[in-house]
Amino acid sequence: MKNALILKNESLNKYNSWRVGGTADALFSPKNLEDLKFFLKHESYVKPLTFIGLGSNILVRDGGIRGTVIIMHAALNEIQMTDNGVYAESGNTCAKIAKNLAKEHYIGGEFFAGIPGTVGGALAMNSGCYGSETWNFVTKVNMIDEGGIIVTRLKDEFKISYREVIKPNSKEWFVGAWFNFKKDMAADPESKIKEYLNHRKNTQPLNWPTAGSTFRNPKDTFAAKLIEECGLKGFRVGNAEVSDKHANFIINLGDASAQDIENIIDYVESEVFKRKGIKLEREIKILGDFLN
C-alpha cells in the first residue's frame, strides 16, 4: 500500500456543520478500514490524533487543531445485516443506518433518522432523540488504537450515561458496532422515520449551519425552554445567533467565527445560571486552540 495522502494546514471549516474553525496541522481521510489500519501502523504521523465524523456535534476553535485529524465519514461505511443483529462501521451516517434498517424491517433504529452525525459520533457521546439512545442497542464495538490494532470490547467495559460515554482506554477510537435490532415484518418503521423527519424540519433551523443541540437537557426540563425563558432567543454575537426557531440551537448567519459561537455559549450558560439557578452542560464538544 502506497503512502497516504496527508493534507497539511488544512482548513477545518468544511469538515464541521457550523462551518467555522482554523486549520489542522495534518489531515487524513482513509478510504476504508484497511487503509486506516495501515496509516496508523506504518505512517509517521503527528500526534495527538483527533477523529471527526460529520463534525455535527463539535466546535472547532479559530486556532485550529494540533496533531493529525482523521475524517471518518467518507469511509468505514460498511453495514452487515443478519438474523443475529446488525454491524455498522462508524463512518456511516445515522440517517443511512435508519433508512437501511427500516428497509429491511428492523425496528428500534428509527430514532437514528433524527441524529445529524455518524455512527462513530453517536457511539462516542451516546446520541439519542425521540426517547431512544444509541447505547440502548449496542452489544459490542470494534475500536482502533494508535498503532492500528483492532480491539473488540463489550458494552459493559464502558461507562455509559446521558450523552456521555467513558472509554476504558482514551487512546482507542470507535470503528464499528454490533446492534441488537430485531426484525418485525408487520411493523412500518419507514412511516415513523417520516414522522420524525417532519417534526425535525418543523422545529429545528435546518436551513442554517448549526451543530444541533448545544446543551444537554437538565433533569426534568429542557435546555431550550430555559434559554427561551431567559429571553435569549435571537441573542447575537458577531454573525452567530441563538435561533428564533429553537433556542438550544446556535446558528452561523454567515462568516461567524468560532469565538462568536463560544461567546454565545458562555453567555447563555451564565444567564441561565444567574436567572434559573441551573448550570447547563454542553452537548457539543469544543476542540482545538484559541486564535493567538
Question: Secondary-structure element order, as H and E?
Answer: EEHEEEEEHEHEEEEEEEEHHEEEHE
Task: Name the CATH architecture of the largest domain.
Answer: 2-Layer Sandwich
Strand coverage percent: 25-35%
Q: Structurally, how many domains make up the residues?
A: 3
Given this structure, which CATH class of the largest domain is correct? Alpha Beta
**CATH topology grouping of the largest domain:** Uridine Diphospho-n-acetylenolpyruvylglucosamine Reductase, domain 3
| Largest β-sheet summary | 5 strands, antiparallel
> Which structural class fits the helix and strand makeup?
alpha+beta
Number of helices: 6
What attributes does this structure have?
292 residues; alpha+beta; Uridine Diphospho-n-acetylenolpyruvylglucosamine Reductase, domain 2; Uridine Diphospho-n-acetylenolpyruvylglucosamine Reductase, domain 1; five-stranded antiparallel beta sheet; 3 domains
